[in-house]
């Protein structure tokens, strides 16, 4: 999932980028309201996180303008101001949630998951192939009744394969979307993570779901 963060304080911006990245999100950073406006109109994001006090255009004006333009992306506003009237102003402008600084990363991630759940109908949170199920909001996976423990990177790779199923996904597409970088034919990082997933998903006695598409990449298909 892709998140746009608009924060003019470098230390806070880097803290958010690191924490969200470790939680499995792809993050774009904007240093002020004008840059955030440009990025929000240019790209599709699953969520926005905007600081209220920014150069150029403040967070409340920014979300109000984007809502007028028809954008409905779930949004959290961050601010050092925590008066009731400030929260009301932000929510009335179109924000979905409001978090006062200083805040814990754990709480921010929980609030982010909550607004994403509200945005998605519950039936669309789950993706399944055969008896393998993936919850895109809670970041959990099961095969049958067995819950599968995944790292953030493994989850991102599995999500990509399952959303594409039964079509194969190329190695170049995997490295671009999961690692956010260009494919390097000299590295075996994709093969390594496919091996990790197979060890966790395709256990003894279970029909293998992760398949190699020769000359292309990998796919998840029901092989039973």
Which terms would index this structure?
224 residues, alpha/beta, Rossmann fold, Arc Repressor Mutant, subunit A, five-stranded parallel beta sheet, four-stranded antiparallel beta sheet, 8 helices
Description:
This protein is an alpha/beta fold and 224 residues long. It has two domains: 2-119, Response regulator (Rossmann fold); 123-220, Arc Repressor Mutant, subunit A, CATH 1.10.10. It is built from eight helices and twelve strands. The protein has helices at residues 10-22, 33-42, 59-68, 84-93, 105-119, 152-164, 171-178, 189-201, and strands at 2-6, 26-30, 47-51, 75-79, 97-100, 126-129, 132-135, 140-143, 146-148, 169-170, 210-213, 217-220. The strands form three sheets. It has a five-stranded parallel beta sheet with strand order 2-1-3-4-5, with helices on both faces. Strands 6-7-8-9 form a four-stranded antiparallel beta sheet, with helices on one face. Strands 10-12-11 form a three-stranded antiparallel beta sheet. Helix 6 (152-164) crosses helix 8 (189-201). The radius of gyration is 20 Å and the shape is elongated.
CATH class of the largest domain: Alpha Beta
What is the residue-mean pLDDT, rounded to a whole number? 86
Helix content: 40-55%
User: What would you call the quaternary organization?
Assistant: single chain
Number of DSSP-assigned strands: 12
CATH homologous superfamily classification of the largest domain: Response regulator
CA radius of gyration is 20 Å
Q: How does CATH name the architecture of the largest domain? A: 3-Layer(aba) Sandwich
